Amino acid sequence: MAGGVILSDWLALRAFNDATTKTNWGGLLAMSTLSLVPVLIIFFAFQRYLIEGIATTGLKA
């Protein structure tokens, strides 16, 4: 499922870049920003566990 989401985001971003006309840079930036929002939400939600895992990996008991 995640692969399909990434592919659909890529296809949506490619729709804003057309070789025959001018590129809609504003729309491309907006879509790029919106596609990063779910990734950032997941990162901030699980940041504590990520940092905990990194910090405890190097410790010996």
From TrEMBL:
The keyword Nucleotidyltransferase does not apply. The chain crosses the membrane at residues 25-46. It is found in: Membrane. It is a multi-pass membrane protein. The keyword Cytoplasm does not apply. GO terms for cellular component: membrane. Keywords: Membrane, Sugar transport, Transmembrane, Transmembrane helix, Transport. It comes from the Bacteria. Its main location: membrane. InterPro entries: MetI-like_sf. This is Multiple sugar transport system permease protein.
